[in-house]
Specification:
Layout lengths: L13 E6 L5 H10 L11 E6 L1 E4 L5 E3 L2 E3 L7 E4 L10
Antiparallel strand pairs: 1-2, 3-6, 4-5
Length: 90
């Protein structure tokens, strides 16, 4: 289906898509994903970008890409994309 759930704005190593929890935004975001308009900036309440780091404020744990991040002592969760990964191709 060639779905592209991440934006092209920015040049950071982390790709992020944020969907606000307002009525109808999730349905409009899903429709935009299926029609290829997800990263065009046409859906109100949907934000996509490529960034260097992400800071998440809040008392609750956050699940990102199947991994759970827990806030410590009221400090924000900070995710940075400055770690190089090496892959082997055969």
């Amino acid at each position: 289906m060639r779905l592209r759930p991440f934006g092209r704005k920015g040049d950071g190593p982390l790709q992020i898509s944020l969907i606000q929890s307002r009525p109808g935004v999730m349905c409009r975001a899903l429709f935009a994903l299926l029609t290829g308009r997800f990263d065009k900036g046409t859906v109100k309440g949907l934000h996509t970008a490529r960034v260097d780091d992400i800071t998440i404020h809040g008392p609750d744990p956050v699940t990102l890409d199947g991994e759970i991040y827990y806030p410590n002592d009221g400090r924000p969760i900070i995710l940075q994309g400055n770690k190089a990964l090496n892959f082997v191709r055969l």
